[in-house]
Every structure is written in C-alpha cells, then in structure tokens.
Amino acid sequence: MENGSEGSINLHGNGGDELVDLSDQVHLLPCSIKYDGPCSVSHYFKPKSTGMEVEGLSVDEAQFRGRKLQGTTISLPEGYSGFVLGKKGRGKRKASKMSEEDSNCWEMNAKFKNMTYWKHDSLPSQHDAFLRSFHWLAVAKVMHQPVGAEDLVSASIELEKFTQ
C-alpha cells in the first residue's frame, strides 16, 4: 500500500496581513489553461450582463479566445467560504535543503464568497452538475447532525404509519 504525503495549510493568511477579497473576480472556465504566471486578464476577459435570466439565474456573457461563454455568478452556501491557496514561502533556501514536508505547506492568499462559472455550449442551468454538487453540502450537514430524542420519537411515529 502506498503511503500518502502530509502537508499543512496556514489558516491565518500570509503573515497576518488582511486577506484580499476576490468576490466577483473568481471564474471557473470550461477549459484548461497551461500557463501559470502574471497576465492582464481584465484587459482581455470582460464579462458583461446579458439582462437575461434563465431558471432564476442571471446570465452573463464573455469571450475567451474567440469563443462565446455564458455563465452565472453564484454565492457560496451559508457557512462556507472559498480560499485561494499558495505554496508557503520559506525564504531563499536552496531547493536541495527543502524537505518534502516543507514543500507541502500552503497558506491562504485570498478569500471569496461567490464565483462565476462559465459554459460554452449552453446556457447555465439549475440542472448543471456543478450547481447540483452544492446540494450535497446540505445533505452532509443533515447526516452529521446529532440525533435527539425528539427526532427518534418522530421517526418512530412515521415508521408506525407505514407499517399499519
């Protein structure tokens, strides 16, 4: 059996500075971008509202590399937050002196409360797998709540109704 690796996430942010709030600036694109570095995204990627609403979702429109994208901005569920993580800087240490444990340390660089997800072949919908995945958070919450005596009595009464 293969051993997993361990790591850590600093939940206090990057050195005590106030975290940058990226709400309204986080986008989930239907593609893979094989580049990791600085880019003036706001110069090229300019989403705008269409004024259209589908299934209660406000539809936005943008272009990416000549392809039309349609998306909607969703708020994260109550009690949840999104975070942008980055590898924790360890100063100017040589790579050979960094242990595997040191290279697997992460820290919060920014936070967000909403995000826009984009589609290129269809309008966003309440039936999209991405939106439906958020339903599991409510299911998990209910499954992990303690069961009280009142809940057991109520369940017993309902069960008796079905067996009669």
As residue ranges, the low-confidence spans are none
| Average pLDDT figure | 86
Share of residues in helices: 10-25%
| Number of helical segments with 4 or more residues | 4
**What series of H and E elements makes up the topology?**
EEEHEEEEEEHHH
Largest sheet composition: 5 strands, mixed
Tell me about this structure.
With 164 residues, this protein is α/β, with parallel strands linked by helices. The chain is built from four helices and nine strands. The strands form two sheets. The protein has a five-stranded mixed beta sheet with strand order 3-9-6-5-4, with no helix packed on it. Strands 1, 2, 7 and 8 form a four-stranded mixed beta sheet that branches. Strand 5 and strand 6 form a beta hairpin. The longest helix has 15 residues, at 149-163. The N and C termini lie far apart (51 Å). 4% of the residues are buried. The mean pLDDT is 86.
